[in-house]
Specification:
This protein has 164 residues and is mainly beta. The chain contains one helix and ten strands, in the order ββββαββββββ. It has one helix at residues 57-71, and strands at residues 3-8, 11-12, 29-33, 38-42, 81-90, 100-109, 113-121, 127-137, 152-153, 162-163. The strands form two sheets. It has an eight-stranded antiparallel sheet, covered by helices on one side. A two-stranded antiparallel ribbon has the order 2-9. β3 (29-33) and β4 (38-42) form a beta hairpin. It is globular, with a radius of gyration of 15 Å.
């Protein structure tokens, strides 16, 4: 079922997942949806494959982890966290010939730790990969080095109206 896109989250220059200038990266974009979830979207390329024609499992877990970790910003835009636990279950292979969409949400949130769940569904709606994660909430100064604020900027690309 398609959900209305409310907003695009920030992206960065060199992040492996959302970095606009990272030639090896996924160039993912993240959208806040009307159902309170976050969608992470990217188009896999041949260099993201494991077996021919299939997305590498590590890339699938990366997009799920990033989507969950960013979902905290739906309710707390100034929150940052680092992954302390990630559990992934692979159900079906993900083909390289179509856009990958991960849906994530926060399932538990307290002062120090937040938890989330996420999944990637195939075109037919079936779950290909699902994950749960735990994140330690930290100030950005304890996570990143250098001038993070100059590397974190608004995504000014076209905003889709809905995401399935």
């Amino acid at each position: 079922m398609p959900h209305t896109v409310r907003n695009a989250q920030n992206i960065s220059r060199m992040c492996m997942v959302c970095g606009t200038e990272n030639t090896a990266g996924l160039h993912a974009r993240f959208y806040e949806l009307d159902n309170g979830e976050l969608a992470g979207v990217f188009m896999p390329r041949e260099e993201h494959q494991g077996y021919p024609g299939r997305l590498h499992g590590g890339i699938a877990s990366t997009i799920l982890d990033e989507t969950m970790g960013r979902a905290i910003n739906l309710t707390d835009p100034d929150a940052w966290g680092v992954t302390i636990e990630l559990a992934v279950r692979y159900r079906k292979p993900i083909p390289l010939d179509s856009e990958v969409v991960a849906h994530g949400r926060i399932t538990k949130n307290n002062r120090r730790i937040f938890e989330g769940s996420s999944e990637i569904r195939l075109v037919d709606g079936s779950v290909a990969v699902e994950a749960t994660g735990r994140y330690l909430r930290l100030p950005i100064e304890k996570i990143a080095e250098g001038d993070f604020e100059s590397d974190w900027f608004a995504d000014d690309g076209l905003l889709p109206t809905s995401i399935g």
